[in-house]
Amino acid sequence: MGTMVTIHVAEPAARAAVDSAFQWFYQIEERCTRFDPNSELMQLTAQIGVPVEVSDILYQSVQFALMVAEESGGAFDPTVGHRMESSGFNREHRSGNFVRTPILPDSGVSYRDVLLDPVRKTITLRRPLLLDLGAVAKGLAIDTAARELQAVTENFTIDAGGDLYLAGHNPQSAPWSVGIRHPREDRRLIDTLFVSNQAVCTSGDYERGRHVIDARTGDPATSVASATVVAPSAMLADALATAAFVLGPVDGIDMLNRLGVEGLIITPELERYETPGLRG
User: Fold this and answer.
1) Cα(68)–Cα(123) distance, integer angstroms
2) Same domain, 200 and 255
3) Residue 108's pLDDT band (boundaries 50, 70, 90)?
4) Domain containing 71: what range?
5) CB-based burial label for 181 (10 Å; 0-12, 13-18, 19+)
6) CA angle, residues 277, 250, 79, in degrees to nearest 5
7) Residues 240, 261: contact at Cβ < 8 Å?
8) Is 208's pLDDT higher than 60?
9) CA gap 229, 262 in Å, rounded
């Protein structure tokens, strides 16, 4: 997933659960990465027009990505993988090797070209395309790791490259404080949020790894500098942060309000837009 993962727990007895939680990041990346030709996702990419039975992990990731695509009117779209690759986002973070997918995707592909069979748990790609699950799979890994930890402890944090899940309370028995990075000034915060049993995820234009393409146009999204979403799950927060980034400040906040989650959007001019319930 190209990111450092940190887990903090207070109870020594939670050590085994922490080890199990970390393993989910490896398992989900092995299933869902587009940077490994042997991943389950890339094996799916090689099979066009036929139903492919997939693991629960991959099916859940794709199903959720398609749901967000529908809710965002296609602003978020997991079929942008080839556009990402063509734009230079094709370097595997561990080896440093460049990845080039051996397909010639049709122009105009969209999430509607991905068909799911919920009974057989199959995925059919109607046309040649490359899925990018980067805005979904990491959130799923955080949520799955959180479930491991919740069985043994109430208070913990998971930080996967700045995407967070914060359970319970901090050592002072208060909600966790989360600093939101200033999108234009290094080592400075633009805001601080206080959360408990929530995920906080941000999409920003200041990190190459968070490059966001507007699937409707094929061009980079430019109307937002950062979009932060607070939601019950990291998969939801991460995907909606990407969708809000693409939609822009007004439509992005409208979507978050409609879906009942909280968020903060900062424009390149440092204008602030936020949902009414962000401050509690």
Assistant:
1) 17
2) yes
3) confident
4) 39-98+106-133
5) buried
6) 105
7) yes
8) no
9) 6
